[in-house]
Amino acid sequence: MGDNVVSFTKQMQKATRNVHSISDALVNAKLAFALSDDSVWSHGLLIFYEIFKYLEANVPETILPLIFHRRHAFEKDLTFYMGKDWEKNYEPRKEVVKYVEHLQSLKERNSTLLVAYVYHLYMGLLSGGQILQKKRRLAKKFSSSGEGVENGMAVTNFGDTPIHELKTTMRNLIDQLAQGYSDETKSLLIEESERVFQYNNTIIRTVKDVNKVNLRKFVRFSFLLFILYLMYKVFTT
How many angstroms separate the Cα of 139 from the Cα of each of 37, 76, 152, 168, 213? Predict the structure, then answer.
């Protein structure tokens, strides 16, 4: 690839920059105070579980190698947070069902378009997912108990393989695949890339208990600031 040729993955990133920023802002707004809450985190895992499971069952390993597969990691984390029988009473939310139905329609109509979901979702785990997990680990260390900090983190744990290597592997894989795609297919993939974040935003908005947890932690934080203010007034008057 020449120096002046922009890789296809960079084209995808550029095309989704605005909607990606909205998605990041939404995640940060909803989870800013809730990262240390296991209930919120488990609901966050649950809404994406069906999406990753579908992709791993329907996308060939030539596009989605086993090293990236996360289904069993999701199930391990969900079992940790929700108990071994979590699937018995589990029913995907309607927003998640619509998401999976869209993936199914793509598979039937033009399965190549699933590449957009593979790239953005798995790169999301390797990028933003790693950041969220670090923030969550830090938040739990400073929680009341500080126990179980390293448990329930299988989804973002890729073992001994460095994250930067996995990112490079994914980018190179998609760029290599794109060399065999027509201009029309590339255009459709870029359009579908925007839908990835639109669907992600829709299901993120369904995460339960976030507002309640955020309000509770905001009240505690405000109370702490009030106490510090009183102490400051006592020692400065």
Answer: 9, 21, 14, 29, 14
